[in-house]
Amino acid sequence: MPDPPIQPSSHRHNILWHLTQSNKPFPRYIMRPAPPDPATTPAIEWILFGDETTINRAANLSAWKIACSMGLGPKRIPFRIRDIVHFGAISNVWRLSDARFPLCGPPQTTPCDLSFSSPLRLIRHGKLLLQPEYVDIAVAALRRVSTISGCAQGTAYRDLVREVRAEAAGLPATRWEGARQDLVRWSGSQQREIDMLGVVGKLGLPEGVGQIWPLIAAAHWTHLGKGTVFGLGLPKVDDFHQENE
What's the CATH architecture for 99-244? Predict the structure, then answer.
């Protein structure tokens, strides 16, 4: 299987996985599901951070080729690496404040809808949130970015959670409109199918997403999955629809 082409990092990728100045390690690469394409499904995108001396791209690519040939699920269906996106040197990685908001107008105040076509899995006290609110989504976005950047702990992180929660709770939002959508994934380690409970739908923000807009912009790439799971909880920022009111 030939190597996929390396795509240059465009402005649509310009988000930072660091929240603060930190010497803590962070991922050298992440994998996420590639957009559907009948010719290459199933497929993933491989996003790399750093120079060749830190990521060892050749060795990693060789290992992932073996994983691709071993396949997914109980039927071991082979998959492909469709694209490789390389950010280059760590010092060139953009910060969260440099994220680009997907709509025209001021990011903080532009009315918008947050929609989820892939299942959103937000768990509270062991139960799935069937009617997630904006504050739930905002805190989940912060937790996701913080986990990836290695900053999801300590007093500074807890203070930031409180600030994000207060900002999101102070903004008007419509009620969640959606439905339940559950998936099943195969666990190779447990050799069994595991239920992935979730919801799909949307909520409206008639006065915008507020000062935490970089988190929402970043969530389009980091998603709101748990741990290393990408593809679930992918938010899309759309123009606000008046019928939400």
Answer: 2-Layer Sandwich (3.30)
